[in-house]
Design goal:
This protein is of the alpha+beta class and 470 residues long. The chain has one domain: Orthogonal Bundle (Cytochrome-c3 Hydrogenase, chain B), CATH 1.10.645.10. A hairpin with a 2-residue loop joins strand 1 and strand 2. Helix 7 packs across helix 8. The longest helix has 32 residues. The radius of gyration is 22 Å and the shape is globular. Bound molecules: NI-FE active center. The site of NI-FE active center has 16 residues, from helix 2, helix 10 and helix 13.
Length: 470
């Protein structure tokens, strides 16, 4: 709604402000939609395509490391076991001082009881928790090399990118990437496997709807790096048909003339207090059915389709845990898929950055059309993201974003079907209702982002702030 009446070229900049965690995915979806509307979709230069991929890939790494270490790990790692640490690691000594002084946030308060790692494993994980901050900073720096700034990039534009690669920039990007790849291979993936082995029951709970959807992402010369498609528990592959995407607002606080609607016609009309509604999130569905999106969906759709790199890596990880692919429909399956996804993207980036042509063009000119339509589909860190727009009189007339967490955290739809996260929680046995670890661990395994999933509502006609720029 904020975009209506604006210059279409503002969309990648404004839609990034939906979220500070995955802004690049919004810039990319919006830019793909505009490329299509402006008729430059097939004319992006090699450098333009690669620079876009490197900016988005840097954000994937930052987001996945953030999620595992800083949002999810403390559900499994008991950081208070650092209290009697007597070694020389400066990070652990700092944590110990915090604990001694009673400055326990963000480590406490927390749920108590189900921490299963021994003292050594807890200490190692706590040290990695701290190291992960540095890795995230490096991923941000890497993004800024071609993206200009973080979190909201100015580097991705319709027609291509803004930064012409130089040998200096490539070097600056590559040394950071190689350090990060070492962290993913030697620390992140082993940590996820350690936790999965200590919590094998979490390879069985939180499975959810067992339908998975991927839009595919990261264009290469010969097609997308991650393939698009859908699959289910049987792991039979299906082709993606974007016309089958709809959103229902039957149980959401929005009004709509018809329900459900395809995003080219979708409406965002707040109706708080609507009878029966219980969420600000809409309910996206594919072919009328409930689908999970995210790293697990991306990997298993590609696994089902026989993507060689994905298949090799997933089979290796399954061997480490001695489980079948179906075990990945679970809490630990989502964490493992996210870590493997991080490696796949980081390794591919090391190849893409070497394909850049220093000094070569990154941008293709286009004419702003009077009227046009477009849509952009991309894989965001949290899964399938689509932006749909219509342009009339060189201005945006209609704009809809259907976002990964909207899929995963959706309420019931017009048929009464609960969303993936609701299905994943239903029927879960809680061992200790005062410490409902099972529920928080299931919810967090989806890496939900409600900033992305809800729509912004401001009090009608009321000034929220006044800014003067001189
Ligand atoms: Ni706010 Fe996002 C990602 C997007 S999620 S984090 O990844 O698009 O719903």
């Amino acid at each position: 709604m904020i975009l209506q009446g604006r210059d279409p070229r503002d969309a990648p900049l404004i839609t990034q402000r939906i979220c500070g965690v995955c802004p690049i995915a919004h810039a990319t979806a919006s830019t793909f939609a505009l490329d299509r509307a402006f008729g430059v979709e097939g004319k992006i230069t090699k450098n333009g395509r690669i620079v876009r991929n490197l900016i988005l890939g840097s954000n994937f790494i930052q987001s996945h490391v953030l999620h595992f270490y800083h949002l999810a790990a403390l559900d499994y790692v008991d950081i208070t076991k650092v209290a009697d640490y007597s070694g020389s690691d400066p990070g652990l000594r700092a944590v110990k001082r915090f604990l001694e002084r009673g400055e326990l946030g963000p480590f406490l308060p927390r749920y108590e009881g189900d921490y299963r790692l021994n003292k050594e494993a807890n200490r190692a994980a706590a040290a990695h928790y701290l190291q992960a901050f540095d890795i995230r900073r490096k991923a941000h720096e890497m993004l800024a090399v071609f993206g200009g700034k973080v979190p909201h990039t100015v580097g991705i534009v319709p027609g291509g990118a803004t930064q012409v690669p130089t040998v200096d920039k490539i070097t600056s990007f590559l040394w950071r990437l190689n350090e990060i790849r070492g962290f993913i291979d030697n620390i992140y993936i082993p940590d996820v496997l350690t936790i999965a082995k200590a919590y094998p029951d979490y390879l069985e709970i939180g499975s959810g709807c067992k339908n998975l959807l991927s839009y595919g992402g990261f264009p290469q010369e010969d097609g997308l790096f991650f393939w698009s498609g859908a699959t289910s528990r049987d792991l039979n592959p299906q082709e993606l048909d974007p016309s089958k995407v709809t959103e229902s607002v039957r149980y959401s606080w929005y009004a709509s003339s018809r329900d459900p609607l395809h995003p080219t016609e979708g409406m965002t009309k707040p109706h708080f207090g609507k009878e029966g509604a219980y969420s600000w999130i809409k309910a996206p569905r594919y072919d009328g059915k409930v689908y999970e999106v995210g790293p697990l969906a991306r990997l298993l759709v590609n696994y089902a389709e026989g993507h060689p790199r994905v298949k090799g890596l997933v089979d290796w990880a399954l061997g480490e845990l001695e489980v079948r692919p179906q075990a990945l429909f679970s809490v630990m399956g989502r964490h493992l898929a996210r870590a493997l996804d991080c490696k796949l993207v980081a390794d591919a980036m090391a190849e893409w950055v070497m394909e850049l042509e220093p000094g070569g063009p990154v941008y293709t000119e286009y004419e702003l059309p009077d009227s046009a339509q477009g849509f952009g589909l991309v894989e965001a860190p949290r899964g399938a993201l689509g932006h749909w727009l219509k342009i009339e009189g060189k201005r945006i007339e209609h704009y809809q974003c259907v976002v990964p967490t909207t899929w995963n955290a959706s309420p019931r739809d017009e048929k009464g079907q609960p969303g993936p996260l609701e299905q994943a929680i239903e029927g879960t046995k809680i061992r200790d209702e005062r410490n409902p670890f099972e529920i928080v661990r299931i919810v967090r395994s989806f890496d939900p982002c409600l900033a992305c999933a809800v729509h912004l509502v401001g009090p009608r006609g009321q000034a929220l702030a006044r800014l003067e720029v001189s």
